C-alpha cells in the first residue's frame, strides 16, 4: 500500500484530518518519567496510544530526538506505531534538503532506519536534491511550500517575473513535474489561510496538504479547513503538537492528551 492510499484510508476509517505531532521536550515530560533512560520513548508511546483513535497520522520531529541522542528511541517509537497502529502513516518531519548523493542517505535514514511512510523535504536546491526521495515509489514526499513561521515570507512570498509568488511556483513544480507517482504533498501553514486556499486551487483536489500552525501557533480551525479541504472534505493533515502533548502537566496527562486530540478532531469535523 502506498503512502497516499494509507492516508486516504485513515481519513475515511477514522473520520479525522488530525495529525498528532510528536515533539518531545525533556523539560516538559511528566514527573513519573523523570530520570528514566527511555523517557522520551515512553512519553511518545503513551501519547500515540492515547490519541490514535482521533488521528489520521503521526509526525515525529527528528530534531527533538537527535538533540538528546534519542535516535534509538525514535526507532523504537516508529516500530511501535507500525505494530500497534499499522493503519496510521508516520510522517517524519526532517525538512531535509541537500545534494543528491547526500539526499540518498537521508532517504535511507527515513524510509529504512525509521520505517517512515513519508517525510518532509526542503525544495530550495531543486529537483536533483528531491529525486532520491521520489525514487521510493510507495513513500510520501512532503515538500515545504508556505510555512507557518513569520519569517517564511522573507523568501516564500517573493514575486517572480510573472508576478507569481515563489511559494505558488513551488506548488506548481511539485504538482506538475515532481509528482509523477502521485505520492507528493505540500506543507502549508494554517497561519496563512489565504495562501492555503491559493495552494489548494493551484494543485487541485488530489494532493494532500500538511498544515501546521493550529493550536499553540494560533491558526484558526474554521479558516484552515475552509481554505484547504478538497471536494470530499479531506485532503489535509492538520497538525497539532504542543496543544496535545502538554495538555496537562499533572498525572492525568494521558487522558488530557486524548481529550485534546478528540476535541480538535471534532472541531475540525464540525467545519468540514
Kindly describe this structure.
The protein has helices spanning 3-14, 39-51, 62-66, 71-84, 100-113, 127-134, 153-156, 166-178, 193-203, 221-228, 242-245, 253-271; strands at residues 18-22, 57-60, 91-96, 118-121, 140-146, 184-188, 209-211, 236-240. It is of the alpha/beta class and 272 residues long. It has an eight-stranded parallel beta sheet. The mean pLDDT is 95.
In short:
By secondary structure, this protein is an alpha/beta fold.
- Kindly provide the radius of gyration, computed on alpha-carbon positions and rounded to a whole number of angstroms: 18 Å
Question: Largest sheet, if any?
Answer: 8 strands, parallel
Trace the largest sheet across and list its strands. Answer: 2-1-8-7-6-5-4-3
In sequence order, what are the helices and strands, one letter per element? HEHEHHEHEHEHHEHEHEHH
Any low-confidence stretches, pLDDT <50, length ≥5?
Answer: none
End-to-end separation in angstroms reads 27 Å
Give the number of DSSP strands.
8
The average pLDDT is 95
Q: What is the count of DSSP helices, taking H or I runs of 4+ residues? A: 12
Helix vs. strand class: alpha/beta
Report the helical percentage: 40-55%
Spatial shape: globular
Amino acid at each position: 500500500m502506498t503512502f497516499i492510499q494509507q492516508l486516504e484510508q485513515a481519513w475515511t476509517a477514522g473520520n479525522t484530518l488530525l495529525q498528532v505531532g510528536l515533539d518531545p521536550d525533556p523539560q516538559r515530560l511528566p514527573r513519573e518519567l523523570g530520570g528514566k533512560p527511555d523517557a522520551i520513548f515512553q512519553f511518545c508511546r503513551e501519547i500515540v496510544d492515547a490519541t490514535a483513535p482521533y488521528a489520521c497520522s503521526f509526525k515525529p520531529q527528528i530534531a527533538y530526538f537527535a538533540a538528546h541522542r534519542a535516535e534509538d528511541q525514535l526507532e523504537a517509537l516508529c516500530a511501535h506505531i507500525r505494530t500497534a497502529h499499522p493503519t496510521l502513516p508516520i510522517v517524519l518531519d526532517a525538512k531535509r534538503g541537500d545534494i543528491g548523493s547526500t539526499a540518498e542517505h537521508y532517504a535511507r535514514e527515513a524510509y529504512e532506519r525509521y520505517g517512515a511512510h513519508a517525510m518532509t523535504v526542503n525544495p530550495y536546491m531543486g529537483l536533483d536534491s528531491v529525486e532520491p526521495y521520489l525514487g521510493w515509489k510507495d513513500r510520501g514526499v512532503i515538500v515545504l511550500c508556505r510555512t507557518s513561521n513569520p519569517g517564511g515570507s522573507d523568501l516564500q512570498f517573493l514575486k517572480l517575473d510573472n508576478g507569481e509568488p515563489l511559494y505558488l511556483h513551488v506548488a506548481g513544480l511539485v504538482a506538475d513535474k515532481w509528482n509523477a507517482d502521485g505520492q507528493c504533498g505540500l506543507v502549508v501553514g494554517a497561519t496563512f489561510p489565504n495562501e492555503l486556499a491559493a495552494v489548494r486551487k493551484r494543485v487541485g483536489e488530489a494532493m494532500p496538504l500538511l498544515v501546521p500552525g493550529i493550536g499553540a501557533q494560533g491558526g484558526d480551525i474554521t479558516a484552515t479547513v475552509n481554505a484547504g479541504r478538497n471536494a470530499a472534505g479531506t485532503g489535509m493533515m492538520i497538525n497539532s503538537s504542543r496543544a496535545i502533548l502538554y495538555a496537562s502537566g499533572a498525572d492525568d496527562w494521558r487522558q488530557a492528551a486524548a481529550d485534546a486530540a478528540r476535541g480538535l478532531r471534532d472541531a475540525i469535523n464540525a467545519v468540514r
